[in-house]
Amino acid sequence: MFIAAAQARKFYEHVASEGRLFTFCDDGQLLIFPNGGFEVIPFWSSQSRLERVQKQHPKFRGCAFDETSLMEFVSDLAPRLHADGVRIGVNGSGERLRGYDVEVAHVLRNLKHYTDR
């Protein structure tokens, strides 16, 4: 299994079981990155993953953590991101923050699969 696939599976499992997900923000705004013609907001399944990213990537050291409940993500944030055409980066890791950038509809479908287990 490729690392991105394993990290994505961990993302869905952990978010479904813990009911929350995390990202970085700057001045109260979620960070959005261009990637392959799309805008992407990276999310992680735990605060400890964000802490690890901050240690490995200096550009994130000045950023605050943003914790979103799964309920808020599903009912409010995901529909807004979907309407804006923004993708979700899931548990990017390593030196180049490799991971999958996924359409919001797919993230929601995968989270539902893991929460229905």
The N- to C-terminal Cα distance equals 22 Å
Encode the helix/strand succession as letters. HEEEEHEHEEH
Overall morphology: globular
The secondary structure category is: alpha+beta
Low-confidence stretches: none
As a whole number of angstroms, the C-alpha radius of gyration is 13 Å
Proportion of residues in helical segments: 40-55%
Tell me, rounded to a whole number, the average pLDDT: 94
Strand order of the largest sheet: 3-4-6-7
Number of helices: 4
Number of strands: 7
Outline the biggest β-sheet.
4 strands, mixed
Strand content: 25-35%
Structural account:
This protein has 117 residues and is of the alpha+beta class. It contains four helices and seven strands; from the N terminus they run αββββαβαββα. Strands 3-4-6-7 form a four-stranded mixed sheet. A three-stranded antiparallel sheet has the order 2-1-5. A hairpin with a 4-residue loop joins strand 6 and strand 7. It is globular, with a radius of gyration of 13 Å. The mean pLDDT is 94.
Write a brief caption for the model.
The protein has 117 residues and is of the alpha+beta class. Helices cover 45% and strands 31% of the residues. Strand 6 and strand 7 form a beta hairpin.
What is the topological layout?
Elements: H1 3-18, E1 20-26, E2 29-30, E3 33-35, E4 38-43, H2 47-56, E5 64-69, H3 70-84, E6 87-93, E7 98-102, H4 104-115
Parallel strand pairs: 4-6
Antiparallel strand pairs: 1-2, 1-5, 3-4, 6-7
